[in-house]
Amino acid sequence: MKPSYKTTIFACFVGYIVQAIVNNFVPLLFITFQNSYSIPLSQITLLVTINFGVQLIVDLLSSLFVDKIGYRPSILVAQFCSAAGLLMLMFMPEIMDPFTGILLSVIVYAIGGGIIEVLISPIMESCPTDNKEKAMSLLHSFYCWGHVGVVLLSTLFFSLFGIENWKFLAFVWALVPIFNGIIFLKTPIAPLLAEDEKGMTLPELFKSKVFWLLMVMMLCAGASEQAVSQWASAFAEQGLGISKVMGDLVGPMSFAIFMGSARAFYGKYGDKLNLDTFMVASTALCIASYLLISLVPSPVISLIGCSLCGLSVGIMWTGTFSKATVSLRTGGTAMFALLALAGDLGCSSGPTLVGFVSDAANGNMKLGILAGVVFPTVLILCLIFGKSIKIRKQ
């Protein structure tokens, strides 16, 4: 099939699946790493911190180098690093200190994940589509479906072939970014700005009140999403007394499915909906879900609240991106990179606040979640009072 913008859109969808792979595959192996390589949990936990820390650094630096080297070389580097990091997992722990080998692998694929997060949205934005808001929401739903697929397919593989054969699965997952890199090598990639347009500089962005409001919205979107997502499994295990595997399936999986469904829904019907109204209603539902989780004593109701939270946060990240592309149309790569940075800061700060408050309350996660309600509350205030940010119909 001859490459066209349809293949570019397809490659963008797969790009978010690649990011889901690099973020969610290795955490499934934490106990295996502990048992096979005698790595303490304190070091294993550091892998998550390093993964997202590297992605944050890449978010920040990409605004300086992407426009210089171009979108195509940059996205090819992202696919190469994602594949290389997954392949390195197969042999690096065997040829050096196991933790160091795994850590180096994580750093390599985290570079790929960071570039993907910065570039996929502007590449998608540059494609000729009938409705940018719908396309962007559908695009971001593929991270959710990728997350679901990684957990389900990996669990199925481990059940059939044994978790001791995880290296073969790492090879299989590495084939996805390799395949996607081949597509990005040939498919057309349009410039984000017209030839006579110049992207906003960092000082110009920093002087914009709209930009800073968008940054706060992105931080709150990431925090609202991850504050519950990261603790959903613990709720399932502690509240219902089920196994770790079932806890993952009932907690984070249901959250991801509902979040992906919300994004897919807006991706299909977004042209018939007002984005501002949809975001306000979703954020109000998010606040209600936080209160449901934290104030209702029933563990079953808490899990329902987790699922509703997934449904409510689906539009937050994508809707803020859509607002940014219309409100700051010449924001360019720098804007997308800094918004991704703010979102990742939120993804880190949300669970941190919940964990800190829970620990201070002697392990009471409900109080931690109750503290996390500050993030959707700030977001809904930004939406209500941020009248300068308007989304016009495409």
Outline the structure in words.
With 394 residues, this protein is mainly alpha-helical. The chain has 2 domains: 192 residues, Up-down Bundle (Growth Hormone, Chain: A); 198 residues, Up-down Bundle (Growth Hormone, Chain: A), CATH 1.20.1250.20. The chain contains 16 helices and no strands. The model has no long low-confidence stretch (mean pLDDT 84).
The assembly state of the depicted protein chains is: single chain
Low-pLDDT regions: none
What is the CATH H-level superfamily of the largest domain?
MFS general substrate transporter like domains
How far apart the termini lie comes to: 29 Å
Let me know the largest β-sheet.
none
| CATH domain class of the largest domain | Mainly Alpha
- Tell me, briefly, the overall form: globular
Order of helices and strands: HHHHHHHHHHHHHHHH
Provide the domain count.
Answer: 2
- Derived from helix and strand composition plus strand pairing, the structural class reads mainly alpha
CATH topology of the largest domain: Growth Hormone, Chain: A
- Whole-angstrom Rg: 20 Å
Beta strand %: under 5%
How many strands in all? 0
| Contiguous helical run count | 16
Average pLDDT, rounded to a whole number, is 84
Helix content: over 70%
CATH architectural name of the largest domain: Up-down Bundle
Task: From the structure above, extract its key features.
single chain; Growth Hormone, Chain: A; globular; mainly alpha; 16 helices; 394 residues
